[in-house]
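Hey,

The postdoc asked me to send both predictions to you directly instead of through the lab channel. I've kept everything plain text so nothing gets mangled by the mail client. Protein one:
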Amino acid sequence: SNSMVELYTIQRYLQYNTLVKNNLQHFDAWASTFGETVTAVELTPEGYTLVGR
């Protein structure tokens, strides 16, 4: 599976100069630009809970 960190690492390897040009050379800046937090209901032993990912 491709996680956000893996995608960032590949882009950093292939397009580092572009990331620097757009001030996205740090993961937090990159993730806030391209990522989205999603809240979903998940079943746990205690019942259903909301989980943000």
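Protein two:
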Amino acid sequence: MIFDGKIWDPTNMLDITKLRLAWWVKSKWLDHNTSITNFIRAPSSTLARTSRKQTKSKVSWECPPIGWLKFNIDGAVRSCPGHLGIGGVLQDETGAIKLIFSKKASWGDANLAEVLAVRKAMVLFATSSWVNSNNIIIESDSKNVVSWVFNPSKALWSSNETADSLAKSGVNKTHDL
């Protein structure tokens, strides 16, 4: 290769490329401890970390306060959309299990499964003997459902009023539209 009147040997070009790449890696990943020399000798044997493993923080279950019961609920879906399953466990302030449920639900996505699990927990509590003597905490791992419970106007269905009214009117129809 001839550049600027000079003949460049392919080996020299490769060495220059490796050197520049090594310096780039050093500047990009400051905590990368491979030497420039090792990188030039065997670039494929040196790996730069492109992402750090995120460790899940372990959250332990906490008992509800005295006079309260806690329903831990969850929803599951096989594929999206797919068959849904919901489950929950109701415990008192000592951690004693008062009630459990696990059932097949309808067809849909993960958000629907979580909403159905919340609904089932509320229905079970509302029809139980504990409703008159205890308050309820419903705990879910679904950020969407928790935000919808506290701010229903932000739920996905709030922007779907036309389809919602069509669905409601469809309940009473004898023939499809």
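Summary for protein two, as requested: Helices lie at 10-28, 36-41, 110-126, 143-150, 161-170.

Thanks,
C.
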